[in-house]
């Protein structure tokens, strides 16, 4: 099974991916996580260091694919999860999709691509251009990470559009949304009313998750010495179990951009926060700090 995890930058894709990968491995699956973000830190909490990327390795081998061995690019991470970082094209040139294509090609040549029960692609999703949509060509399921705020849901909607498009020619389904770093889910639910899809799980802001990144450890590894963290692992195990049950998922129909702007901004302006200033929102509503400032006249930013 192939999974593709998408979401706005910094929303928690890599954190969620690493912990889901371990959860799947705990369920007896052989798992490979492929970081497809040029930031190349997808697998950091699994391995504890920034592993060399496919692009780095190909460069040192002068692009002689036949000189690349599995151990040059596949690193074993915590919980027996294997890790690959695709890397990015040179800054300002090249295409992320080319890099993903080369990564899959290389893994196939090394006979590694078909060796795994699960391959999880950790991608980015602010802009799902043709290049960054490439992992959807291989995926059975897309999983979108979002918080309860405008920007992440806007990105989720763009990703949904890419899934809808790819599903025309590939057997791809959207498994659903994972809410992250939010104790509220009202805006997520509002979105899902307009663009129906499952909500797989909603994780609150958990300080230990932030710490896990700094320590270069997943929650599962941290829970070994601190069993009070097992409740966090259970969130990820729950997501893994839902995926392993091969859910029906959906082929989403995205909300048109302008409709989405008014849907989400009407919500901000009419739902119990009539003034809805940015500072109000930052001080604890969990709607993120990404609300356009002119909330009392959505037409202002519709024209941007
Ligand atoms: P992305 O891969 O989407 O760019 P990351 O997974 O790198 O995002 O997460 C960005 C930051 O947010 C990291 O420091 C991570 O530890 C933190 N983080 C992610 N999820 C949570 C959470 N539920 N609670 C607290 N911090 C989180
Ligand atoms: Mg990441």
Task: Calculate Rg over CA atoms.
Answer: 19 Å
- State the order of secondary-structure elements, H for helix, E for strand: EHEHHHEEHEEHEHEHHHHHH
Mean pLDDT: 87
Outline type? globular
* Helix content class: 40-55%
Give me the CATH architecture of the largest domain, please.
3-Layer(aba) Sandwich
Q: What would CATH call the class of the largest domain?
A: Alpha Beta
Quote the beta fraction: 5-15%
> What is the structural class?
alpha/beta
Oligomer: single chain
What count of domains describes the coordinates?
2
CATH fold descriptor of the largest domain: Rossmann fold
Number of E-state strands: 8
How are strands sequenced across the largest beta sheet? Answer: 3-4-2-5-1-6-7-8
The largest β sheet comes out as: 8 strands, mixed
CATH superfamily of the largest domain: P-loop containing nucleotide triphosphate hydrolases
Cα(first) to Cα(last) distance is: 41 Å
Low-confidence segments, given as residue ranges, are: 274-285, 289-304
Bound molecules: adenosine-5'-diphosphate, magnesium ion
What's the tally of helices?
13
Description:
- The structure is a single chain.
- The protein is an alpha/beta fold and 304 residues long.
- It folds into 2 domains: 254 residues, Rossmann fold, CATH 3.40.50.300; 48 residues, no CATH class.
- Helix content is 41%, strand content 13%.
- An 8-stranded mixed sheet has the order 3-4-2-5-1-6-7-8, sandwiched between helices.
- α1 crosses α10.
- The chain is globular, with a radius of gyration of 19 Å.
- The C terminus is likely disordered.
- The site of adenosine-5'-diphosphate has 17 residues, from α1 and α8.
